[in-house]
Specification:
By secondary structure, this protein is an alpha+beta fold. It contains 17 helices and 23 strands. Strand 20 and strand 21 form a beta hairpin.
Length: about 725
Amino acid sequence: MITQRIRKIARLGTALLLVILLPVTALGAPVDSKTEQVGSYASISLDKAIQIVKQNFNVPSDLQEFSSGFDSYDNRQVWRLNWTAPEGKEGSFMAEVDANSGEIMSMYRWQGSGATGSKIPSISITQARQIGQKHLNQLLPGKSPDLVMDQDFSIIPLDSYGSYNIYWKRTYHKIPVGSDHASMEIDRHSGEVLHFNLHWTNSKLPEPKGIISQEQAGEIFVKDQMLKLQYIFPSAVQPLRGDQKPPAPRLIYAIKHQSNAMIDAFTGKPVNAEYFMSEAGGMGESAKNLSLKLPVGRDEALSLSPEEQQEVEKSAELITQGQAVEAVKKWVTVPDNMELRSAGLEKNWNNPGLRTWNLNWQLTSKTSYGNLWAQVNAANGELLSFYLNLPPVEGTAPAIGKDEAQQIAERFVKGIQPQRLQETNIYNDSLQDNSPENDSWSFNYLRLVNGTLCPDDGIRITVDAKRKQVSSYSLDWTEASFPSTTGILGTDKANEVFLQTIPLKLRYTFIQKPGEQPQVKLVYFPESKDGLSILDAKTGQALYQNGQSVSDKPQSYVFNDIEGHFAQKEISLLGQAGIFGEYGNSFHPDENITLRSLLKAMLASKEGVYGIGKIDDQELINRCQRLGWIKEGTDLNSQVSRDNLSLLMLRFLDIEYLTRVEGIYQVPYQDAAQLSAISKAAAAITWGLGIIKADGKNYNPAHIVSRGEAAAALVHTLAVNTRP
């Protein structure tokens, strides 16, 4: 959009210049608006564009105000149509129509801030996909055969409002085409299309003829040593808390090559992936002048919890803000006209044991800009990173070359990190050595451990080519125990397994060099199935890019044993949310549920499957106790009675206290007289809220519930809105 606006401004500027400079006769006769209207060169008129949209989508009749616009850019002419609600009401409908082909390029419907509805979907993701495909075939009959639906979908939580996102990838001769795609958002209740977007590049695609074979591409892959043994720091499956340490480093084989393993399908040469297609707010005062004061009358000693006391003791061991500032100034010359505007002591999000001072200086001049940002290890005063942003050098000062810039960079690193520099190897990210862009040179020194690359760690440094000084520096150096390289797959075997597991497949990609038009290239590229893109160096198991295995990552389930079950819909919804996956894509609906399974499902429904990860029994007990769901001494292997299920659902909703109200509850069960006061209250509340209907005759509080019964009760509980 920004590019479009720039183009528009440029065209307007050119037009105005012509009006100023050219004589009247050169401009010709004035344009008659009656004969040359907006969009007169387009094949599709405005009224036709409106009809196309209304034929394909339901434009709400209450959106009574209408406006239109016309854009011409990148050899494309587009009608922009907007329907809005009258003043005082909410809602809008927007669409873009290609003025030459008549294709709807995008559509967006906003139903208003109050249009939320139930959190529980009325239709499944499977039904949404069927609806989406039908719409796509109608909207793009000529393009839909080349648009392949992406069947992989993210876990869809049940405890949030929203829509289903359907995605189609463009293909040509069954070969994926760059980032071209179509997408839709489908309302989870009505099945209506809320958003549609088409991204389709009009560039001519080369025919896949006269290309090298997949085998030949594989040989080039091996010959150029694109697969490298390296260490990776796996991401934590769930957020780290307290003193939890990040997962240990893992030995893997992964792509490490300037081409990113893209091989030109015609020439067989690696493709240079380099061309593969706020200013921090200040405090208002200098940070040094800020102080923390207790409110008047509250200067007495207050008791601290053990966790609070522990945090106080840790903070006392850290360096002060002033010491952090001096640590920066030891290595970086802070310009005299810069003032410290902000300083913050923060915990590292990926490593709770690391505390850092984050400092920001800004120029005091109102006529210029510039800032210095720096990060210091609060435990030992080590400078971790800085970025110095200064105004451009005036005049035509000569820029230094790469060799001199590298000397400056290494002098700096030898001063600040002499030992660690010896444990690195410089890495060039480009296949070719270009002149510096933006008057700077950048160098990447990657860490070596046991002679093996550790690309997440290292020293990255940039040199200002005109000022002849370091302008940015960052250090990433993880303190961890690295596994030995013994017992790993050899390089030949690793290449063989990789090319079998993550094979090189054809795809069209777009390359754009600075100052040149985009080029379409047909390349061989590793096909990452389900996101698996690296190998465990010891087992050869395919892993995700973050180092997690398939078993570590939550996934959605399509259960194969629930057809015709009374709770089929509820069980399916839980499956697409990644819940109840103990048996993979089987559910076992008639099996008695254990308390462990039910509590995991409840916790996953409340916090999301990513929030619990591979939770162990003790952590499950601890978290459920904190939520008030269970008491100490709970047996996770125990079976769940209907009475227990009712109370757990009420605790989930935080309304169990209602069962303590006596003498007001009536239940439609024949065994009501045999129920205790609490059982009767729980039965009445869960019946009234539609959570549990039992068998319609007897409540039978001692009945052991099945997995299917528990799933139905959980989904019905999630559908309850306890807010006023």
